[in-house]
Amino acid sequence: MTEPLPPGSVIGILGGGQLGRMLSVAASRLGLRCHIFEPSANPPASHVAERVTTASYNDNVALAAFAKAVDLVTFEFENVPTEALDLIEDTVQIRPSRQALAISQDRIAEKDFLTSIGLTVAPYAAVDDLSDLEAALGRIGTPSILKTRRLGYDGKGQHRLSEETNLTDVMAAVQDTPCVLEGFVDFEREISVIGARSTDGEVVCYDPGENVHRDGILDTTTVPANIPASLKQDAVLVAGRILNALDYVGVMGVEMFVTPQGLMINEIAPRVHNSGHWTQNACEVDQFEQHMRAVAGWPLGDGSRHSDAVMTNLIGDDANAWREAPSGLHLYGKAEARAGRKMGHINRISPKS
Amino acid sequence: MTEPLPPGSVIGILGGGQLGRMLSVAASRLGLRCHIFEPSANPPASHVAERVTTASYNDNVALAAFAKAVDLVTFEFENVPTEALDLIEDTVQIRPSRQALAISQDRIAEKDFLTSIGLTVAPYAAVDDLSDLEAALGRIGTPSILKTRRLGYDGKGQHRLSEETNLTDVMAAVQDTPCVLEGFVDFEREISVIGARSTDGEVVCYDPGENVHRDGILDTTTVPANIPASLKQDAVLVAGRILNALDYVGVMGVEMFVTPQGLMINEIAPRVHNSGHWTQNACEVDQFEQHMRAVAGWPLGDGSRHSDAVMTNLIGDDANAWREAPSGLHLYGKAEARAGRKMGHINRISPKS
User: Fold this and answer.
1) Do A214 and A318 contact (CB within 8 A), yes or no?
2) Of A53, A103, A333, B285, which has the fewest beta carbons less than 10 angstroms from its beta carbon?
3) What does the pLDDT read at residue A153?
4) Which residue blocks in B162-212 are alpha helix, DSSP H?
5) B4 in A contact zone (CB under 8 Å)
6) Max alpha carbon distance in chain A (Å)?
7) Which residues of A fall within a CB distance of 8 Å from B292?
8) Confidence band (pLDDT; 50, 70, 90) for B155?
9) pLDDT digits 0-9 by tens, A190-222
10) Chain B residues closer than 8 Å to A13 by CB
């Protein structure tokens, strides 16, 4: 048993986007204070955090000062450079752990890990050059998807391959970045489970949500997912197995495909997740508060759901919906509504079915 | 029709206590940014606001700079000095209006106003000196309560009078501050209605809550109140009448006594109110977001209730409850848990009855 960080403690958050913003708001409910570290100026989280450090992840002086000023460090995105984490960890604890981060930063490491604990993923192979790609295609075939091993999100850095694809062109497009070839999964639906694990090893998962994407970006998450009860239970057990295997502390998002052969893991995110935003309006304790409770060493909160919910992302000009939305509106404070940019979301709730 | 303040606008809030803190959090959901003006250092709202001015309400330079830096001013408490408001209003609009503030700052003005629109209040009389007090007691009798006309809250500045009370001692205790003598109301229960009115004159009221006090401080608010449906409707109509009569914009708390003769108004507060904190966990849009929507000129939100709720204040050492509360916890970020100090609250919800 670790002693929980008491109210008044300062949580450092790496990254100042909308996830950091909503983490900071949730922390305030628990009497915890937040200090954001973010390279870009005027980020969404800066509007609701007590302190903000604006500096690059390569700025060792700023990183050291940040680490000294906080009682614990967590993060809102998984692509923080290893060197920055090393430097911070010399001074203060990081939760979730480096192991979880390292695995989720590399698609091959992630798939190897998931397979090693007996879970199913799409057929995959590492691709570093044209001959790797040809060999991988020989085994996996088409249709398939070539993804960069690192730094991909929202469909960026992904190329769909068919029989007609010119392989030389594709390798040129990825500029010889290390990649993974994934077999195309003809799934019925995509679901995700938002799970949390405490420092004591307690696990609490939210009900699975059903995700629909548009142009490679999450469009809606609907809860409950339209799947049998047994599959919901399987999905929650799978998430729990991943959390336990990693000795994880914090909230994790686990995306899964529902296929005729059962559940297949798409990817894991070692942080609060867009497909968990519905919890803000439909649950007693939302994913952001749950994450803060977990990393601060508190007992997990009651993640039970009092309502059904549909979360709809507001992308680009969708944000103009603020003029009409009578409830469940969450805007991120971004000044410029660029196409494809997540500007906010709306949670529509209805009585629990 | 006024044009609403768009997301990205800056709302100035006079006062940085827990109400300012929760207003700031609600504003962030709407993409609005907050600038707090507060005389004391490190106030609760400063942990979740983008900007904080630490200055006295007599600091004209700081007030002028604050007014210039924001798009609108609202307040979390009603005792802002008139001169400060005058100075701010030279530059930027204040909502709710000065009229509502002026009335609620003076118990006599408030009771005169409520009586003038046909509502019932306890018998009252202005008391400036001993002879006023004797005359007032001759008319109102005992038991009764002598309250300061201004600056009273949470039972402070109140003296209960019985037949045995030494009147000279009481006048010495209030140090000749202008007072009001109120007849003691033998009420069945106290309820309150949190109402909101938009710039377009739309009114939305939350379901009445039932309040129980302990040592002069609100202890619990329970929703639904244990009163007949007809009385709930009356209570909401009364709140609506007050909001309309004042051409009010924003959220107001209206405390009422349920007596054998019907509803009697105890007092009004031209701001979000402790007895409305339950809305955070039991409603689609809470009182804080509703206030921000109203003052920003937005359409009001959906104030409907999806759950029953009991709000319990955490006073002084009650705040240690954070170790056990699995949901509905709201701490205010105050460093010192002094006796009688509001440190937080817990909202316990249950399925709607």
Assistant:
1) no
2) A53
3) 59
4) 167-173
5) yes
6) 60
7) none
8) low
9) 999 999 999 999 999 999 999 999 988 999 999
10) none
Gap between the Cα atoms of B231 and B335, Å rounded: 41
- Residue partners of B98: CB distance under 8 A and separation at least 6: B85, B89
Taking phi over 0 as left and psi of -120 to 50 as alpha, with beta for the rest, B182 belongs to: beta
Q: Is B180 on the interface with A (CB under 8 A)?
A: no
Chain B residues whose CB is inside 8 A of the A345 CB are none
Question: Residues B148, B151, B153, B159: what is their CA dihedral angle, to the nearest 10 degrees?
Answer: -20
Q: What is the pTM of this model?
A: 0.95
Residues with pLDDT less than 70, chain A: 1, 152-156
User: Quick check: helix, strand or coil at residue B111?
Assistant: helix
Q: Which of A45, A25, A78, A15 is nearest to A288 (CA)?
A: A25
Tokens of A91: 């001074």
Determine the Cα–Cα distance for residues B86 and B78; give it in Å rounded to an integer.
14
Q: Rounded to an integer, what distance in angstroms lies between the CA atom of residue B136 and that of residue B127?
A: 7
Among A310, A232, A252, residue whose Cα is nearest residue A96 = A252
**CA–CA separation, A18 vs B205, rounded Å?**
31
Nearest-Cα distance to chain A for B83, in Å, is: 30
Phi-psi group of A186: left, alpha or beta (phi > 0 → left; psi -120 to 50 → alpha; rest → beta): beta
CB < 8 Å & 24+ apart, contacts of B223-226:
B223/B278, B223/B282, B223/B305, B223/B308, B223/B309, B223/B310, B224/B308, B224/B353, B225/B189, B225/B191, B226/B189
Residue B353 structure tokens: 């009855």
ipTM of predicted complex: 0.94
Spatial contact of A282 and A305, defined as CB atoms under 8 Å apart: yes
Q: Of B51, B96, B47, B85, which is closest to residue B292 (Cα–Cα)?
A: B96
